[in-house]
Inverse folding.
């Protein structure tokens, strides 16, 4: 789950700085697992055409996440969870402070 969310934040950084940013980020977000249940749910969900997106969605759903952060928002057309871009979530967080 973390790779798409972090990509937009670190794509312009060198490897060492990227690792530092990921370490800092993981102190403030929930990183969730994908297990057999999520794989099976994805396989059975006829709305999903991209397996990876389905895994991310069902992992987030089962972990009771409130938001999926991705730059590919249109890929989650089937989502019952809010989907936001990296800049969108940053604006939301900053406006709430």
């Amino acid at each position: 789950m973390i790779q798409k969310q972090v990509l937009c934040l670190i794509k312009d950084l060198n490897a060492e700085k990227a690792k530092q940013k990921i370490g800092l980020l993981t102190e403030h977000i929930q990183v969730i697992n994908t297990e057999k249940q999520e794989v099976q749910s994805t396989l059975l969900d006829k709305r999903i055409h991209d397996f990876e997106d389905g895994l991310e969605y069902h992992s987030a759903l089962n972990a009771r996440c409130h938001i999926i952060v991705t730059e590919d928002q249109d890929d989650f057309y089937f989502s019952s969870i809010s989907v936001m871009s990296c800049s969108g979530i940053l604006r939301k967080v900053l406006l709430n402070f």
In short: The longest strand covers residues 67-69.
